[in-house]
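Lab notebook, design round three. We kept the backbone fixed and only want residue identities now. Task for the bench partner: fill in a sequence for the structure below.
Input structure tokens:
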């Protein structure tokens, strides 16, 4: 059985039917921190049995108080599907207030979080808090606080919370530069697996820059063999100097438990998200170029000793890449001195920078190394999105559409050079939802007419008041065509 990626929030569900509740289980840069222990700066390989017997207790004593448990509650109302249809209610004589009345289900989730600011700022995974109505943070000394959400970023699966601790300075973990660590470094994972209480496990950094793990938009993870289980989501991965190197997020698993392959979001990304939500807002620079990872075949043709870097396939006019002097065929191999192994690594490196100032790109051009200065700017909203809810009696009714710009494409998780009309949202139960349209779909054609903007789309739909029509969309890089009822 092939292991699969598994997000590691532990979940329970309590079913409540008024007035008597009943329950049942359902599966599931660096700044000093106030209490961080200063340890040796240059770790050495243990030379004696006595050194091998050294304890991690001082590190845990300093770091563990900054790792918290997170409990969430969300109340949802569910009913048999037939109750949603008036015909079935009348035909079967179903009373919406009778035995088939909607029931309240209280969904609860258990996870972990890390205090990163003594003023009460906590970072966790976005999937831990979900769509919670209530979020309770429990400190290691068992004090409880109600948390508010400062911001959530589904694309990185991170969320930032705040608790009101008054004038008290809470224990907090300092960030460590995640580019400093190496494969083989010892790390500790601290969290609340299966809700049993705070637990510490030890392992090593098994791999760096894992880009093939499709659990977030920014695929760039620290891999560790420290035991991580459901409930560890949002917990801390710390180094032996007691600083935060990553947020534990997912595991590969056959049955939901640890098999020694866990993944953490690097601290450099975490720090960028926290800074965004505790500052002026989360924004990321854009490149303004389309790139492809260098393959082994490309490396030979480009005269590279090994496949590394990302090759520029296209450059948007008046983009940061264009103003930096980037050209088609350039191979980007580093950003600010940090290696860029592939396209995912470039996206990660850019996403950890604030959208101001410049970054230094190192590119290979014609066999020579060239340094370029890249302006760090957020993606612009040009053209204006002109968000429009489609109405009428046809298959697109209920879809909210907009003109694609780099900013809107970024929001929808699309290629930032994508143009045309994108679907921003789809109303539940609408004709657009029933035919399977999704946010992020790009409308290419209706009938034989190209759709280049919202205005084009409205004109085409107005001309086709009735009857079926053929539509082409682009979804996740593939073009899909279907005939839809008018």
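Proposed sequence:
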């Amino acid at each position: 059985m092939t292991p699969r990626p598994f997000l590691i929030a532990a979940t329970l569900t309590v079913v409540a039917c008024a007035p008597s509740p009943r329950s049942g289980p359902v599966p599931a840069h660096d700044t000093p921190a106030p209490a961080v222990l200063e340890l040796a700066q240059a770790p050495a390989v243990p030379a004696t049995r006595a050194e091998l017997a050294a304890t991690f207790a001082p590190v845990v004593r300093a770091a563990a108080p900054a790792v918290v448990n997170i409990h969430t509650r969300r109340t949802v109302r569910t009913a048999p599907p037939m109750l949603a249809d008036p015909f079935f209610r009348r035909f079967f004589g179903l009373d919406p207030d009778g035995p088939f009345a909607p029931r309240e289900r209280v969904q609860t989730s258990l996870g972990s979080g890390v205090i990163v600011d003594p003023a009460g700022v906590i970072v966790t995974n976005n999937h831990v808090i979900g769509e919670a109505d209530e979020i309770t943070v429990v400190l290691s000394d068992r004090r409880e606080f109600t948390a508010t959400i400062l911001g959530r970023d589904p694309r990185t699966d991170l969320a930032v919370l705040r608790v009101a601790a008054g004038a008290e300075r809470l224990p907090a973990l300092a960030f460590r530069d995640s580019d400093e660590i190496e494969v083989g470094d010892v790390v500790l994972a601290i969290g609340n697996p299966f809700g049993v209480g705070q637990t510490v496990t030890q392992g090593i950094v098994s791999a760096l820059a894992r880009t093939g793990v499709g659990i977030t938009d920014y695929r760039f993870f620290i891999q560790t063999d420290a035991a991580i289980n459901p409930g560890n989501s949002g917990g801390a991965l710390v180094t032996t100097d007691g600083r935060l190197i990553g947020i534990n997020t997912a595991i590969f698993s056959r049955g939901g438990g640890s098999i020694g392959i866990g993944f953490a979001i690097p601290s450099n990304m975490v720090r960028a998200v926290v800074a965004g939500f505790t500052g002026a807002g989360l924004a990321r620079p854009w490149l303004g170029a389309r790139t492809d990872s260098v393959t082994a075949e490309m490396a030979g043709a480009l005269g590279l000793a090994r496949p590394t870097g990302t090759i520029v396939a296209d450059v948007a006019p008046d983009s940061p890449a264009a103003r930096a002097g980037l050209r088609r065929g350039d191979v980007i191999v580093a950003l600010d001195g940090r290696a860029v192994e592939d396209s995912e690594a470039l996206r990660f490196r850019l996403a950890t920078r604030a959208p101001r100032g410049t970054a230094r790109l190192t590119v290979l051009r014609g066999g020579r190394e060239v340094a370029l200065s890249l302006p760090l700017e957020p993606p612009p909203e040009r053209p204006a999105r002109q968000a429009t809810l489609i109405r009428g009696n046809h298959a697109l009714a209920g879809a909210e559409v907009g003109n694609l710009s780099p900013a809107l494409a970024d929001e929808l998780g699309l290629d930032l050079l994508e143009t045309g009309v994108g679907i921003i949202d789809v109303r539940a139960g609408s004709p657009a939802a029933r035919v399977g349209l999704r946010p992020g779909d790009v409308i290419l054609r209706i009938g034989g007419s190209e759709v280049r903007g919202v205005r084009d789309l409205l004109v085409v739909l107005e001309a086709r008041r009735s009857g079926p029509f053929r539509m082409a969309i682009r979804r996740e890089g593939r073009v899909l065509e279907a005939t839809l009822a008018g």
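Keep this in mind before ordering anything: Confidence is low (pLDDT under 50) at residues 11-40.
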